[in-house]
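Sharing a chain and its predicted structure for anyone who wants a worked example. Both blocks are below, sequence first, tokens second.
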Amino acid sequence: MAESSSGQERTESASPRRRQEARSEGNVAKSQDLTAAVSLAVALLLLYVFGQKAYVALHASMRALLSNDFAGNPTRVDDLRTLWSYAAYAAGVALVPLMAGLVVAIVAASLLQVGFLLTGKPLVPKFSKLNPLTGAKQLVNLRAGMRFVQSMAKLIVVIGVGYAVIYMELPEILAMTRLSAAEVFALGAWVVFKLAAVLAALLIVLAIADYAYQKWQQEQDLKMTKEEVRKELKDMEGDPLMKQRRARVARQLAMQRVAAAVPQADVIVTNPTHYAVALKYDGESMRAPKVVAKGADFLALRIRQLAALHGVPLIERKPLARALYAGVEVGQEVPPEHYAAVAEILAYVYRVSGKRSAA
């Protein structure tokens, strides 16, 4: 189990914040072997597709250069410039598709592993890395030993597979002594291409395994101790004591607003215990009844107590109380879909209390 510098075990998965910080510093899981293997495979594919065209272009340019078709006198500056211009053009026609495809493959392999990441933090010099003792420890630690074992295992597997491929092609290789120079060149190129293709496929498989190991290793490195998790939560959410104090102040302010608004209300619509909504209507200054106070649970109990103390009627309407509490903020007017229900309640309250309702 990985341990932190404080000696505590890293048992907790990395938080999103820790992952983002690691990514911004360039600390991402990436396998250089995978990029190299994909590049090799793409290069072979490009050679298979464009190889003959490149060979024809280079062959034609070589014949033209040796025959002085583009430079009558190579010792003259003008003829020499013409000669090199044609050579550069021929090489570009032959090699640009191969190089462009290879660059695309390298960029794609990197993007598939880490996505788009642009940061300069890995380039910032760290003097701690210049310490010879630190470098010496990194050469003899467990992780360095694992890398050495992995490298040796990959080398053994590659050598074994390469030997097997050459052994299978050995009869054709021995038969080259009876072939012409052109046939020897063609057969040799095909054997080398087949060997490279097999090794590229093998290297891709090994590189995928290496990338999976790099991902696992990064997850282990990013794990957090319980203390680190608590500290991060404290940093993100603030001091718990301050949070409690802010919540207490918020409750006090809410109580003060309720204490001032409930005595002025015309009616309290209740759930009857979980919700309480205080309504007030003045036909001369309001287009519709307003919610002047509302609360749930303890605050609802306080609203009912204040209403009883100041003689404000309590009317139980469960669906209406829930709807007004959820959909109408304090100070807002009742929406039109609740006009009929609220008007019925106010009419009843006015009739019982003898108060005349506004038109």
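Comments welcome. The first strand starts at residue 267 and ends at 270.
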